Amino acid sequence: MLKFFRIWMALIQILIGIQIFLAGYGALGTGDTAESFELHIMNGRLLGLLALVAILFAALSRAGGRLVGMAAGVFGLMVVQSLIAVISVGGTTAGQLIFGLHAINALFVMGLTEATGRSAKKILESRKESGAGAAPAAATTA
């Protein structure tokens, strides 16, 4: 299950890359702003859902509370992303400053997602080492 979790986190990372593209696409889109950012918003909602499910997968992988906490942190940062988007008021200086935090928080989402995937990889490697080391020891005692 841990291997699946790692793949799940890689999928989230890919979608974050697409999200960045969609933000640029929306920013330079013509016409209504809401229409220009529609794909960005839809992908963001999908990312939030995938991050929520990642918590479950982290728990099912039995890799410990740290990994579950990291997955929960990714979901929490996704919630913050939505809150920033809702709170900021377009066309005002304060709204623009608040919305600037949306981009900064996105960097935190990317970083924590990457760190969570790396943590899962380290746990997988340590499980392989301990499993490989235990098999010869068992064979010598038999």
Q: What this model shows, in words?
A:
The radius of gyration is 20 Å and the shape is elongated. The longest helix has 49 residues, at 93-141. It contains five helices and no strands. The two termini are 31 Å apart. It has helices spanning 2-27, 33-36, 38-60, 65-87, 93-141. The chain is 88% helix and 0% strand. Helix 1 packs antiparallel against helix 5 (93-141) and helix 3 (38-60) packs antiparallel against helix 4. Residues 133-142 have low confidence and may be disordered. The protein has 142 residues and is an all-alpha fold.
Main attributes?
single chain, 142 residues, mainly alpha, 5 helices, 88% helix, elongated
Give the uncertain stretches in residue-range form. Answer: 133-142
Question: Could you give the order of the helices and strands?
Answer: HHHHH
- Gap between N and C termini: 31 Å
- Percentage of β-strand residues: under 5%
**Helix coverage percent:** over 70%
The major beta sheet can be summarized as:
none
The total tally of domains equals 1
Q: Could you write a compact summary of the structure shown?
A:
With 142 residues, the chain is an all-alpha fold. The protein has helices at 2-27, 33-36, 38-60, 65-87, 93-141.
